[in-house]
Structures are given as structure tokens and as C-alpha cells.
Amino acid sequence: MASTFTRVLSRKRTVGILSLAGAGSLATGYLINKDKVHASVKSNRRMYPASAEYPDLRKHNNCMASHLTPAIYAALIDKATPSGFTLDQCIQTGVDNPGHPFIKTVGMVAGDEESYQVFAELFNPVIKERHNGYDPQIMRHPTDLDASKIRSGVFDERYVLSSRVRTGRSIRGLALPPACTRAERREVERVVADALSGLKEDLLGRYYSLADMTEKEQQQLIDDHFLFDKPISPLLTCSGMARDWPDARGIWHNNEKTFLVWVNEEDHTRVISMEKGGNMKRVFERFCKGLKEVERLIKEKGWEFMWNERLGYVLTCPSNLGTGLRAGVHINLPQLSKDPRFSKILDNLRLQKRGTGGVDTAAVGSTFDISNLDRLGKSEVELVQTVIDGVNYLVECEKRLEKGQDIKIPPAPGQIK
Amino acid sequence: MPFGNTHNQLKMKYSAAQEYPDLSKHNNHMAKVLTEELYAQLRDKTTPSGFTLDDVIQTGVDNPGHPFIMTVGCVAGDEETYEVFKDLLDPVIEDRHGGYKPSDTHKTDLNPDHLKGGDDLDPDYVLSSRVRTGRSIRGFCLPPHCSRGERRAVEDLAVEGLGSLDGDLKGKYYALKNMTDEEQQQLIDDHFLFDKPVSPLLLASGMARDWPDARGIWHNDNKTFLVWVNEEDHLRVISMQKGGNMKEVFNRFCTGLTKIESLFKEKGHEFMWNEHLGYVLTCPSNLGTGLRAGVHVKLPCLSKHEKFGEILKKLRLQKRGTGGVDTAAVGGVFDISNADRLGFSEVELVQMVVDGVKLLVEMEKRLEKGQSIDELMPAQK
What we know:
The structure holds two protein chains of two kinds. Chain A contains 13 helices and ten strands. Chain A has helices spanning about 1-20, 50-55, 65, 70-75, 85-95, 115-120, 120-130, 180-195, 215-225, 235, 280-300, 340-350, 380-400; strands at about 160-170, 205-210, 250-255, 260-265, 270-275, 305-310, 310-315, 325-330, 350-355, 365-370. In chain A, the strands form two sheets. Chain A has an eight-stranded antiparallel sheet. In chain A, strands 6-7 form a two-stranded antiparallel ribbon. In chain A, α8 (about 180-195) crosses α11 (about 280-300). Chain A is globular and about 70 Å long. Chain B has an eight-stranded antiparallel sheet with strand order 2-3-4-5-1-8-10-9. Chain B has a two-stranded antiparallel sheet with strand order 6-7. Chain B: InterPro entries: ATP-guanido_PTrfase (IPR000749), ATP-guanido_PTrfase_AS (IPR022415), ATP-guanido_PTrfase_cat (IPR022414), ATP-guanido_PTrfase_N (IPR022413), ATP-guanido_PTrfase_N_sf (IPR036802), Gln_synth/guanido_kin_cat_dom (IPR014746).
């Protein structure tokens, strides 16, 4: 199914790309046809042998450092993607950020869709480590955005305060945030804002460009907890994704404030569906509906999302490949969070806890952000169902502990087969 | 980020208008000069090592600046940047360096005997004296653009050259990544240690990549001569000591620099220099001499005088806090140094500092006694 799709869409996409105002025709190497991706564009300057350029990773603890041997470095250092992105650029963030003894970061990014192929010798083992054994060379990733398959999914609001699902999407043919030029980034903004303006009914909304926002609009977005700011984390800034800030960055949201799109932050788009309370089913329904609508609207103009059957949806950070999906709740678990078995229970449910400020924050009181651990190798429906089943289990545990009853650690699932 | 030239060629499929940065809210030298027409004219050019216009201006695009402080907003990636992008950099240089024209020549004078006086600044007021400059090694890319291999080669050359210094310049190199905790603490206590830059002005140019690889500090055993390797430039050379004997500081500065230069030449390397721009460094603000000669001086009365700023301007001096650039003064103690870098020789600039600081201390003494300083007002230098 996917390959017929790709062929039909490539033709349309050509029309879309030629419609870009600008001189000349597109280099043919740019059309995405997996069989013809040129991995051998030579990068233009190197006077030293690979051994003199190999980074010092002895104090590093990230996935890139674990897998970048001098041999792999030497094999890939002369290659570049068609848009000119090199290995050194992929790994710069991992070289500059040695990592933390307890938290293993990914340590590399893609500059464009082709990065994952041109530098596959490094990306593949990193993906395998990060995604629990998923092997892009032999496995296929299932995509499923049919929300009608979800069972249950309305939580007890005495415990679950809010529900949220997010993912990202990249526009095929335009480089990703670490590599894009200003014109490409502006083109992403134009394509996405144009598509979003076609949304209707409960998805009807408005785009706020970061550069043109009024003070009043800015304050409102801050109060709604929608505004994103220029990244300060060196993990992100070292990859080059914050260049030219705030040019072509913006936030779109629907009037009801339940569907939100970030444009040109860490990815081309980040798509978020959320509401207060425990109706995860409805949040996911809106998520799927919105995503499909946006996809339909960009296809009308000859564009498509970056997707393939090995890696699913292609995003900047390898940690977000596949579904790019994080479905989570803010949940209050005063008893369970004090139980020494809490972490093990979460592990076995394939869930992860964070503070309510998001990644890298600590929990306040006993309220946690609980979400799926996995991104790749399982479909959207599977992951959301995992979160739903898991959160139901956690609420059950909490209720039992309240009554002085004992709880059980659920069985551990196997690795991806 | 050092993008390859393939990347620059790819941008050509978009029009200049589509790629031209939005500089409407910017206040830096680059933004003042870079019109859309100039951008269109220069966008397809690249230096032999692959540095492009967007590389030059990235820091200025990412850092719009401050309404009161005019930053430069562009950097060089190699020596050729100043030639290939002269249509942008010449006007920036002219604006930044007091009207210095593309046809002007710059005098280099590192003969300390040419300095008059400077050994008698009152140590009750002048707490310390310091002269710094930078040097780049010809043939290697500068910090915004260099590869790891190049940066390591610069470090190797620096360590080799500095290792040959003797007499009161004999010293030791401390690589940032190999430093022991004890060495690190000592360097901090001596106020010698430099850390990974946090200023977005520097980070946006790409000069902090691969930190702390190939970065280090060399200093002599007497702790009066110090070289930073691969921080904002290939080399930053600093001569300093407590008290007001600027002449001795400048003597050591010139002797050390001249020795280092000849040691490099013995190995077949020279510094980037030409008779128009003098010594070539990463930031256009440091061209010419790259020299900042300064003192930490107590001026609690004078600094409160309404004409303090005007006096400094007339003397061609600038004030900073004692933490260095972008810091505020603490307890009436200021860092006073030359405002100029290009168009005056090293001797001329240090002379201005010596003569100027002498006058400032005199004024301070008068104000302490409640006397007027009107008759001491200097003419514009």
C-alpha cells in the first residue's frame, strides 16, 4: 500500500515543489525515491584524515557515543545528504553534550529525510538501542490512526486531571530544523499555516506567528500554557535548530483551545490534542481527526508528510521516530507514588513518569505526568491503548492502597519480536 | 554551524528575497549594512574553505542586539572571509573603527622602548595592569569554522611553540579536558581559567563546538604571561601583574609575542597579518592590534562626576566592570582601557592608556580634596 501511495504522491509533490516561487527547477536528486537516494555527495573540505577528526567521546554517555566507532566515522565522514548535511552535523549535539550518568540522551539528529539512509550505519544501532531492539533493516512500523479501535479511555477524574496526546510531522522535501535554510523554514510555515486555515468546525482556529505577535496575544498564550520560547537547552541549540529565531516560528490553535500546532520548533510541526479531565478517548479522536484533515489539506497542494514503512513518521530526533507519539495524563497518586513498587509497576506497564513541567522536570507533590515509553514499533492505537490500560491499572492500585488493600506488580511484557 | 557549500548552492534555488533574514528589529553593525541587495550580491560566494555569507552573519541574525550597545553581528571563518565578503565587512569595519577606510593602512609597532613613561601609575589607585591581544595562525580556519582536526593542529602548534619559551617566560600548558581538579582550582583562584562561553553572541557563531576539545591555558611560572588556546580566537595573549607598572607589563607583552612569533616562523608558520587590517582575528572588532590595554583603577569620586563619560571619550578610553566586558563596576573600581583597536599602533594605544589613566588619577585626587577639575579637562585625542 505504501509504495503505490508514494508513487502517486511523488508526482503530485513535484507539482508542489515547482510551485515554489524561485529560480530554476529542482535538482532531481531531491525527489524522494528510496532506490535512487544519492549517498555519495562529497562534502567539500577536509584536509585531515578521519582519525584526526574523530571526536573524543571518552567521557560521553549518549547513544551516539556508544555506537560511533572510529571505523564507522571513517566510513561516513566523506558522505553528505543531497542537501549537504554531513555526519559531523548529525553528531554535533552529542559531541557538545556528553550526557549524564543516569540519563542517556540520543546525541544525534537528522538534517533531512535522507540522513537516516545516508548515515544508516550509525542511525540504525542508535535506533535499535533507543527503541528497545527495533531493527530498521528488517522490521516494519505499523501506522494506525483509527481512534474507533480504542477501548475504554475515560478516566476517573478524582485522579486524572488532564489528558494529552502529541506527535510531530515533517513536510517531505524540506530540510529539518537542524539543516533548513531560512527560505525552507518559511516554506514550512506557509504550507502548514495554509493547511491549518482550512480546518473547520471544532477544529477552526488561528495562527500566531512568534515574530508578529502582539503583547496581548503573547500574554494570552502564556496564560493558556501554549507559548513555546526559544530553546535554551544545549541539547537543542547545539544542533542548530534555533538559528534565525523567531523567524517562521509560530503557534496555531483552535478556538476551543483543545488542538494546538507548533510550527518550526524542534520539528516542522508538533501536533497536540489536549483537555482537562480524563477523556483520553475523545482527546485521541480529535488528534486523529485533526492529523488526517491536515494531511488531506497539504496533499491537495501537492505536499506530503515524511513517512516510510521502516521508520514510520520521520522527525528530527531519532527518539521520536515511528509514531512520534506521547500520550499522557496528569494524575494524582498520593498513595501509589510513595510505594516502593511504583517504578517497577510503571516499567512493566511500559509507562514513564515526568514532572508536570514536562521532560526534565520534577513532580510537584504527588501529581505526575504519566505517558508511554515507546514510540517506534507499535502503532498509535496500540500505544494509546497501552496508556489507557496502564492508567486504569494505576488508578486501581491507588484505590486499593486507599482502602488498605495490597497491590500487585503487573507482569513484564517481552521485547519487540 | 559549519554547513558545507552544497548547502549554500541549494539555497540558490530560492530567491534572495526568500532567504534574506528579517533584520527589522535588529541593532548591530551587520544589520545596518546588509541590505537585501547586498545579500543578493554576496549570497553565492564562498571562501576557499567553504565559509559563506550566512555563516558570517548567523550570530548577528540570532542576536538582534541592544538599543544601547552596538554589537558587530558578524564573524570571520578564515582569513579570506575579509576579502571575499569585503562589501559587507569594509563598511562594518569603517563604522566600528572610527571611519577606517578600505584604503587605509595599519601600523604595527611592538617596540616597548617607544613607550614613554608608564612605570609610575599610582598603586594606591591602580590595582592592576593588563595588556591582551589575539593571534591567528595563517592557513587554519578560525573558531567559527574550524574542524576538530584543525583545532587540534592549532593546539599542537601552540603547545610546541610555547614549550620553547624560557627565562621569565618559561611555563606550562593545561589542556582543559585533561585538567585535574587541583589544577582547575588553582587556575580559578588565579583568575586564569576560562570556561565554555555562555554568551549567545559567541555560541551562535559556532565557536564553542566540541568543547573542551583542543582548548587550554598556558601560563608562565611567574603567572604574569598567559595564553588562551582556541577560545574565541586561535590564541589570546595576556600580560598582567598587580600594581601600576604598565611599562613592565607592555615590555613582557612585546617580548613574549615577538618570541612566540619567531618560534612559529621557525616551524614554517606565521600569524595572519596584512598591512590593511593588521592582525586578523575572528571578530572584526579585534582587527588591527587586537589590543586591549587596561587597568583596574579606583575612581569613586570621578565616576560620579557628570563629565566622567565625556572625559573618557575625549581620552579614547572605555570603562567596564572588573568582571570584564558586560559587567558592572563594584565599589568604585573600574576597568579602564583603550577604546580603539585598528588604525593606531600598539605603542600608540598603550600610550593613550598610560597618559589617560595618569590624568584620571590626578582628577580623582583633586576631587577627593574637594577641588575642581575644570582646568584638567582634556582635548579630544
